[in-house]
Amino acid sequence: MSVRKSGMIACRVLQLLFIGLVIAHVCLDWSHSVLWDLLPLVLAYAVVTVANRWGGAPDSPRVAREPVEVAPPVTGRWSALNSPADRTPSHGIHAHGQTYAIDILAEPAPGQRPAFRWLWPLARRPQDYPAFGAPILAVADATVVRASDGQRDHLSRTSLPGLVYLMLVEGSVRELCGTGRILGNHVVLDLGDGTYAAYAHLRRGSLTVREGDRVRAGQPIARCGNSGNSSEPHLHFQLMDAPDPDAARGVPFVWRGIGVPRNGETFEAPAGTPALG
């Protein structure tokens, strides 16, 4: 088991210990200061901070890799968010192999995607977003090593109250429950040469592949959804050096014919992108 995966497991155990101590303190009327109950929580965040940085620094010679060129995972007009072209780690942490991850949002026409609202509506149906149900494609000839699509597609979190709820409540619970709850419905492909592609937040019931299947570049493997730790329907895509996101380190990528779009940049992914090699 890798140091990073061990750290993530230890963090979740410490978080559960903190919850247990708080419940016991209230139920058993313990006399010691409640501040002692916070010790496991402090240790949990210390452990996860070390685990997130262990072997994951993008400028470390030991883990530095050239970007891997793959085909785009979508077709049509999309925009980028949390792009590694602007910073690494792109999502602020190295955890879950997401050092070079990117989020992309469908933008078929200006104004078609509902905008963020400060107060109202609190949430929207996933069907209101053009990304929901968009085909997701294999980026290379590969083997499916992980495939999960049983989680629900929830409402958007695109208001200020919804976003606060996602960050402070829902996100913390999902972190405690493990990587699968953060990714939501997801697929991991083995591209060969120690490189794996992960697709997250897919639509429930939309996967067309199972573990062990062989896929070709450009083949539809699922549809975009809003499952897991997601504020609105979008695709979270990343390359990693292992199939388990808890143990993996991120690998830089470049999409053929597109590159790596910057935050807010709109790009067009053509249909029928040629396969690698």
UniProtKB/TrEMBL annotation:
Domain of life from the UniProt record: Bacteria
Gene3D superfamilies assigned: Glucose Permease (Domain IIA)
Residues in M23ase beta-sheet core domain copies: 171-241
Alphabetical list of InterPro entries matching this protein: Cell_wall_metabolism_enzyme, Dup_hybrid_motif, M23ase_b-sheet_dom
Pfam families, alphabetized: Peptidase_M23
SUPFAM superfamilies per record: Duplicated hybrid motif (SSF51261)
Name listed for the protein in its UniProt record: M23 family metallopeptidase
